[in-house]
Specification:
The chain is an alpha+beta fold. Helix content is about 30%, strand content about 40%. The radius of gyration is 15 Å and the shape is globular.
Length: about 160
């Protein structure tokens, strides 16, 4: 095992990222959707690499929320995935910490994400990282409800 490091994703990484997506998620994003998300959020698309092999990724976006006269920035964790053989080794936590730090640098004081109702393991990880259940989004995934969880970020 080599050292795991994080770096910005590049467009050439997208096919490998998509393979991780297909491995991890029951309803994966399409390759074209990854290209769109990448071009909208290049500085918030991060990969975890070991020995030059991509083993995980996350992508986020900044959203403007709240009233027009008092807008606030929120960091939205769009997706996070780690190859199954690397799960449980802290890779997801590294990715989450990095995207949260980038959210804060961009002025966000809150982060949020969605997680499948059945994905109790991820829910526990997010809870341990300070995310709190906000509400259930019915049929969010088309085949299952999603839980929306949020966390205050320390600026």
């Amino acid at each position: 095992m080599g050292t795991i490091r994080l770096r910005d994703a590049c467009e050439e990484d997208l096919p490998l990222i998509h393979l991780i997506e297909e491995e991890v998620y029951p309803v994966p994003w399409t390759p074209n959707f990854f290209r769109i998300i990448y071009h909208m959020n290049e500085d918030l698309f991060i990969v975890a690499v070991e020995d030059e092999r991509i083993i995980g990724y996350t992508v986020g976006e900044i959203e403007i929320m709240g009233r027009k006269d008092a807008p606030r920035k929120a960091g939205h964790v769009l997706n996070i995935a780690v190859r199954s053989e690397y799960q449980g080794r802290g890779v997801g936590t590294m990715l989450l910490d990095e995207v949260e730090m980038r959210f804060m640098r961009k002025g966000s004081n809150i982060a949020y994400l969605e997680v499948r109702e059945s994905n109790e393991n991820a829910q526990k990880i997010y809870s341990h990282r300070g995310y709190l259940y906000v509400r259930t989004a019915e049929n969010y995934y088309g085949d299952e409800d999603g839980y929306i969880m949020s966390k205050k970020l320390d600026n």
